[in-house]
Amino acid sequence: MARTVPRTDVLITLMGAPYESDLLTSALRLTQAVLDRGASLQVWACGYATMLTQRGLGDGKPRNLAAWSTDYPSTSLLVRRMLTAHPGRLHWYACRFCSDDRGAVAHIPEVPVRAPARYAEHVAAAGKTIHLGVM
Q1: Are 96 and 115 in contact (CB under 8 A)?
Q2: Of 71, 82, 104, 105, which has fewest CB within 10 angstroms of its CB?
Q3: pLDDT (tens digit per residue) in 10-43
Q4: Is the pTM of this model over 0.85?
Q5: 53-81 confidence digits (pLDDT tens)
Q6: Spatial separation of the C-alpha atoms in residues 119 and 75, rounded to whole Å
Q7: β-strands 126-132, 8-14: how paired?
Q8: Pairing mode, if any, of strands 8-14 and 41-45?
């Protein structure tokens, strides 16, 4: 059964490798800023950005030798926290083709995987679309 795409104010299309640049930090900050303004948005993760919500990441990153006593959350935990804090206003999706191509098939349960042919529906359901990164 096909799921309908919720209407949102903004769609962020997140493409590219998450740790290659400040792209991930910028995307998460932009997402939080949009939510803080009371708007709704969807994030469509494509390319290597599909790795951000993998269950295998767990809740924390490996310990940092420079700050051994500090716990750092994984990206999947950050996304899960944002989704939990903003139910109905934040929706995060992963591209099926990109996920399959990269072996990123075990996403956290809160992140549905969608066929790339459905991307146009997400664009149509958003008031504005922002593309971050390159593939």
Answers
A1: yes
A2: 71
A3: 999 999 777 777 888 889 999 999 999 999 999 9
A4: yes
A5: 999 887 877 777 777 787 888 899 999 99
A6: 23
A7: parallel
A8: parallel
The DSSP code sequence of 13-47 is EE-S-TTSSSHHHHHHHHHHHHHHTT--EEEEE-G
From residue 51, give the alpha-carbon distance in Å to each of 62, 90, 120: 16, 19, 22
| β-strands 41-45, 90-95 pairing | parallel
For CA atoms 126, 118, 2, 84, the dihedral sign is negative
Residue type, 84: T
Contact at 8 Å (CB) between 102 and 51? yes
C-alpha 48 chain-centroid distance: 11
Tokens (6 digits) for 127: 């008031």
How many residues would you count in the chain? 135
